Amino acid sequence: MIYIKSKNDIERMKKAGNIVATMHEALRDYIKPGISTLEVNEFCENHIRKSGGKPVQIGYHGFPYATCTSVNDEICHGFPTEYILKAGDLITVDTVVEYDGFMGDSAWSYHVGEASEKVMDLMKTTKECLYIGIEKAIIGNRLGDIGHAIQEHAEGKGYSVVREFTGHGIGKDMHEDPMVPHFGKPGRGIRLEEGMVITIEPMINTGKWKSVIDDNNWTARTIDGGLSCQYEHTLAITAEGPIILTKQKGEEDYL
What we know:
Layout: H1 7-30, H2 37-50, E1 54-55, E2 68-71, E3 74-76, E4 90-99, E5 102-111, H3 117-135, H4 143-156, E6 160-161, E7 167-169, E8 176-180, E9 197-200, E10 203-205, E11 211-213, E12 220-222, E13 228-230, E14 233-238, E15 241-244
Antiparallel strand pairs: 1-4, 2-4, 3-12, 4-5, 6-10, 7-8, 9-14, 10-13, 11-12, 14-15
Helix pairs in contact: 1-2, 3-4
């Protein structure tokens, strides 16, 4: 069932989204060579709690951390560990925050120290995919319009689009209907309506799109060891167009 949000609901969701956004803004300077992904997780959890939010990933189906920290070939749901980040690594940090009964969800990717041209191009293309998908999130369009636009752009640049994991509805629950694929055919799928709130979160790989799951039964990584990158926003479908609820300051200029 798809839950339509009121304008008041959306305003409340902005507050949850702002906590996630300011966390990612702070990570720009925090992430650097020599720190562990566990330290990244601790930094994020502290920011969320100090901002009055609740890190709702903790305990979700047994997930033990406030964030997912996915490095290099890890697609999503990476466990924070003692792994020490080194120059050239690519890390995606994903979290969901509850504030005043509503959720905000955003993943963002960062290069650690100086990055290769390969990493930078993957990051640039993935971020472009996010914004291209958001542009299609307007009343009357269908979910297939979003997925098709993302797939066409990514594959046109020589990358692949992960299919096992999708965007989703969000509101009082972390995951609501509908599922939002990042691939597909235009004109197919559920039609977008005013008041729907969804995430768009393309995961783009340098190699094949298929994944394998680690022994922890959570972490997905590329099947061929290729790099993976992800950017995600929570957004509301409105008569004025899509409103990004997790928007960061200066995000368009920051890789």
